[in-house]
Design a protein that fits this description.
The complex is a heterodimer of chains A (594) and B (113). With 594 residues, chain A is mainly α. Chain A is built from 23 helices and no strands. Helix content of chain A is 73%, strand content 0%. Chain B is mainly alpha-helical and 113 residues long. Classes of the chains: A mainly alpha (594), B mainly alpha (113).
Chain lengths: 594, 113
């Protein structure tokens, strides 16, 4: 992706008005309450807590959302306390900020969610380190920030009891709709297999149902299972269609196959539609009958396509089952369900996380290099700000923390957008400050409007995000009694220095994307190897079910080869033969690898 | 390289689809040999991407393995026919990936193997 494309891209699919609305409510309520009760400083702290936790809100399933937002609330509280207490000690503050930055940087190795939480808590830490407090006051501030975060969390989860499975249904609907599109599209072997991204998204969304053994939970898992099986069948039929179009384009079988895929696409679309607006399509039943008839016609025509007949029969059965599951609130054939997600004990999960972090504690790891770069730059920025007693110097390390990313292109584009957006935000804040009446209610309304812009359109373009957040921060500071002119000058100066430090660090010690591509490709090949091995064993031992082999070997969390999501963990560098390798493979392994 | 890896995974997925859609048949000895060599190749290519040495002559001859596979068993058996077609694609994709990696290393562009 080119630099200017990154800078100017506007990702419409990330616009989220409903999330923005509830986040704005969660942010503005403490502010309004503080104004009403005459306690603006306390309200500002609670609102800042709500603001930071709002970044963890999303359309994800409620359980995942709850876990992430509660973790964010706890981290905000910890960062506020640690920052406010360490701020008293000039010698302690810089190493604590550096160590926190290193830990936040290492979280890149785990997941994007973990990395985002790390950066959010780092920013909170450096902001509150600029406002030293006694331990008891720091604890009170921490409590207020946690309270703001919990309010935001409560609003994000408010509809959980009545819209419990909406995110899961949405993810499944996306998968079925994409399968409908892929069924009639020409397969292209240069592209990733059809519906890969939607399949991964649905698997992730339904992972939150791991401990949910309710009838509804089982129903959604079965719908996913049917979609996965239909995906494979459609994939095979698509390849047969290409073959027959090449070998016998005018044959009856070619026409039957074409028609079958068209009708199957309509049924899949009906299922997808019914999942988001649960009104089962009446025409889908008739279409299922047509699918059955087409399979019979192919059989009667005695066309030399036994594969196609078998796949058509299987897909028709899968679609019938999916349609019933979608339309009904009861589960038919629950006993046939074999694909239970097994929740790993928390000890294993923790061990896996620690193993990933340990594996990345090496200069070969892009995550470790990022962590070191981030720690050094944040500590340097903090030290510079404190040494020269810069006004509102926390914006300096904060800019470093936000701009510095594991890859150069993101760092550079974010640096540019941060600078441009900051100055655009100053203009916006200055205009608002002079145009609006000085009444707190008017200022609160302006701040809430900027919060809405920030959360609604900010995710679509980072420049919009920075413009809105800058304007909002200046107005918040003005509400605390500080002149906007003073805040603007300090933020502009510190942002420029922070951006320069981040870019200079990359210039001195770069990590180019191509070195990360190699690791990602290697992980992808490892995942393919696991997948191939599961299939190979099923061919060699036909009596063993493929699901057993797949569950045991290839379908580990993060290693779903068929959906092309490279494992987030660092792959081992061992040259040992893989577990379960045949004697011949094990015998020749060292020779081959050498 | 990404296109080759996509072609590769398409072929592996087709093998999985064939598991459900074809009558079981005993695995041929040549299939075991081919599968072993595919695994070794996967491991070697991933290792090369992580910095291990990679030489064309040090990798299994998948084309020869596939030739032996295609000439074994009854080709009219439905499952064997499917496996013969898809393993041909797997051999081709892995060989292409291998050549691309070696070419990039020798050409000094892109990856630094």
């Amino acid at each position: 992706m080119s630099f200017w494309h990154r800078v100017l891209q506007f990702q419409k699919e990330k616009i989220a008005p409903w999330i923005a609305l509830r986040n704005t409510l969660g942010f503005a309520l403490p502010l309004a309450a503080g104004i009403a009760l005459g306690s603006i400083p306390a309200a500002l702290i609670a609102s800042i807590g709500a603001l930071n936790v709002s970044y963890s809100d999303s359309h994800d399933p409620y359980l995942q959302r709850a876990r992430r937002m509660l973790a964010a609330s706890a981290l905000v509280g910890l960062a506020v306390f640690a920052g406010a207490v360490c701020g008293n000690h000039q010698v302690l503050a810089v190493p604590v900020a550096g160590a926190w930055a290193f830990a936040a940087g290492m979280l890149v190795a785990l997941s994007t969610t973990a990395a985002d939480l790390g950066i959010m808590s780092l920013v909170t830490l450096v902001v509150f380190a600029a406002k030293p407090l006694r331990p008891e006051s720091a604890a009170l501030s921490s409590g207020l920030a946690v309270g703001g975060g919990l309010l935001q969390t409560a609003l994000a989860l408010a509809f959980w009891p009545i819209r419990r499975y909406v995110p899961e249904r949405r993810a499944l609907a996306g998968l079925y709709a994409e399968l409908a599109r892929a069924a009639v599209a020409q397969p292209d072997v240069r592209e990733a297999p059809p519906a890969s991204a939607q399949s991964t998204e649905a698997q992730t969304a339904l992972a939150s149902l791991a401990g949910d053994y309710s009838i509804e939970g089982e129903r959604y898992r079965m719908l996913l299972s049917q979609a996965e099986r239909a995906r494979l069948g459609l994939f095979a039929l698509g390849r047969l269609r290409v073959r027959i179009a090449r070998e016998a384009p005018a044959s009856a079988a070619a026409g039957l196959l074409e028609r079958y895929l068209e009708v199957a696409a309509r049924v899949l679309q009906s299922i997808g539609d019914a999942l988001v607006a649960p009104q089962p399509s009446q025409s889908a039943r008739a279409q299922l009958d047509e699918l059955q008839a087409l399979a019979e016609q192919l059989r009667a025509a005695e066309a030399p396509l036994p594969d196609a007949r078998l796949q058509m029969d299987a897909i028709t059965g899968q679609l019938r089952s999916a349609l019933e599951l979608t339309a009904s609130t009861t589960v038919a054939g629950l006993a046939a369900f074999v694909r239970q997600e097994v929740r790993r004990p928390w000890r294993l999960r923790l061990a896996g996380t620690l193993a990933t972090l340990r594996a990345n504690l090496s200069l070969r790891s892009a995550a470790c290099r990022h962590a070191l770069r981030l720690a050094t730059c944040v500590a340097l920025g903090d030290a510079v700000g404190r040494s020269f007693a810069l006004h509102r110097s926390y914006w300096l390390p904060m800019t470093v923390a936000i701009v510095l990313k594991p890859d150069f292109a993101s760092t550079f584009s974010r640096g540019v957008l941060r600078l441009v957006g900051t100055f655009a935000g100053f203009i916006c804040a200055t205009a608002l400050f002079h145009l609006l009446p000085a009444a707190p209610a008017a200022q609160t309304a302006a701040i809430a409007s900027l919060m809405f812009v920030l959360r609604c359109w900010g995710p679509a373009n980072y420049g919009i995000f920075v413009t809105a957040v800058t304007g909002m921060i200046v107005l918040l500071i003005a509400m605390a009694g500080v002149s906007p002119k003073e805040a603007i000058a300090a933020r502009g100066f510190n942002t420029a220095i922070g951006g320069a430090i981040a870019l200079a660090a990359y210039w001195l010690w770069p990590t180019w994307e191509r070195t990360r591509v190699q690791d990602a490709m290697a992980q992808m090949l490892d995942a393919y190897r696991e997948y191939f091995r599961a299939i190979r064993e099923s061919y060699i031992q036909p009596e063993a079910s493929f699901d057993d082999a797949r569950t045991a070997r290839a379908w580990r969390p993060g290693g779903r080869a068929r959906t092309w999501k490279p494992p987030s963990t660092a792959c081992g560098r061992s040259l040992e033969p893989p577990r379960g390798a045949s004697p011949r493979l094990a015998a020749c392994w060292p020779v081959r690898i050498a | 390289m990404l296109a080759s890896s996509h072609r590769l995974i398409h072929a592996i997925m087709a093998l999985e689809a064939g598991l459900h859609g074809s009558q079981p048949a005993p695995a041929r000895a040549a299939f075991r040999r081919f599968a072993d060599d595919v695994e070794v190749t996967f491991h070697s290519l991933a290792g090369a991407l992580r910095g291990s040495p990679l030489e064309r002559g040090g990798l299994p001859d998948l084309r020869e393995d596939h030739r032996a596979l295609a000439h074994s068993g009854n080709r009219a058996t439905e499952r064997y026919a499917l496996v013969n077609v898809e393993t041909d694609r797997i051999a081709n994709s892995l060989n292409t990936l291998r050549d691309e990696l070696i070419e990039r290393r020798d050409g000094g562009t892109g990856f630094s193997l």
